[in-house]
Amino acid sequence: MQETDVDTVKVRVLVVEDDAGIARSLVRGLERDGYAARSVDTGRAALAAEPVPDLVLLDLGLPDLDGVEVCRLLRRRSDAAVIVVTARGEEGDRVSALDEGADDYLVKPFGLAELLARVRAVLRRTRPQVPELLQCGPLSVDPRTRKVSIAGQEIVLTPKEFDILECLAVDPGRVVTRQEILERAWDAHWYGPTKVLDVHMAALRRKLGVPGLVETVYGRGFRLSDPVGRP
Ligand code: CA
């Protein structure tokens, strides 16, 4: 497996912590456990973080913004899981943060083992496991290696075409809306022209070469259907 493949499957954790020593040891501990971790020391930097992390470890006592407010804004702009970190005696803040959508909390001081256990538990709840291989009729999609094949024959797709196909392949038969595909294959805040999707979709269908495999559900979106096994 290539290095880039490894990176795409790593869970991204953002540590928001203004104590440099704590931040460093958390990042190191998370990295050792296989996460792609980095840290920022202000609420503003947390809100501007790109790429959007999968999980945020949020210290509520930040120098610039109110931690509870940061939690609320994070929740509004992404579906990252949030674990808040508070000092003893900040129970009110902890409750407010949970009310604002935090998934869990930790009280300082805490051990790395406990943190990692909380991270795993939250990710289990918020991120469904990526299945090994997605299949529909003659189509196989491997999310880990990003390889696609039709009846065992490998099909070379562009990254965008793959992302679109993956949206459909995770649940064959379910109608996936245009907006859902745009949000997942482009950006969580895509509001541009949707014509671009049609162009990629046409190319994808041409490459797959199986008529009826990607169905257009008029006015709703697209779905995968098994053209051979269909009743
Ligand atoms: Ca702090």
Which features characterize this protein?
binds calcium ion, five-stranded parallel sheet, four-stranded antiparallel sheet, disordered N terminus, Rossmann fold, alpha/beta, Arc Repressor Mutant, subunit A, 40% helix
Can you offer a commentary on this structure?
This protein has 231 residues and is of the alpha/beta class. The protein has two domains: 8-126, 3-Layer(aba) Sandwich (Rossmann fold); 134-224, Winged helix-like DNA-binding domain superfamily/Winged helix DNA-binding domain (Arc Repressor Mutant, subunit A, Orthogonal Bundle). 40% of the residues lie in helices and 21% in strands. The chain has nine helices and twelve strands. The chain has helices at residues 3-9, 20-32, 43-47, 67-77, 91-99, 112-126, 159-169, 178-185, 195-208; strands spanning 12-16, 36-40, 55-59, 81-86, 104-107, 134-136, 139-142, 147-150, 153-155, 176-177, 214-217, 221-224. A five-stranded parallel β-sheet has the order 2-1-3-4-5, sandwiched between helices. A four-stranded antiparallel β-sheet has the order 6-7-8-9, with helices on one face. The chain has a three-stranded antiparallel β-sheet with strand order 10-12-11. Strand 8 and strand 9 (153-155) form a beta hairpin. Helix 7 (159-169) crosses helix 8 (178-185) and helix 7 packs across helix 9 (195-208). The protein is elongated. Bound molecules: calcium ion (CA). Calcium ion is lined by residues 18-19, 59, 61.
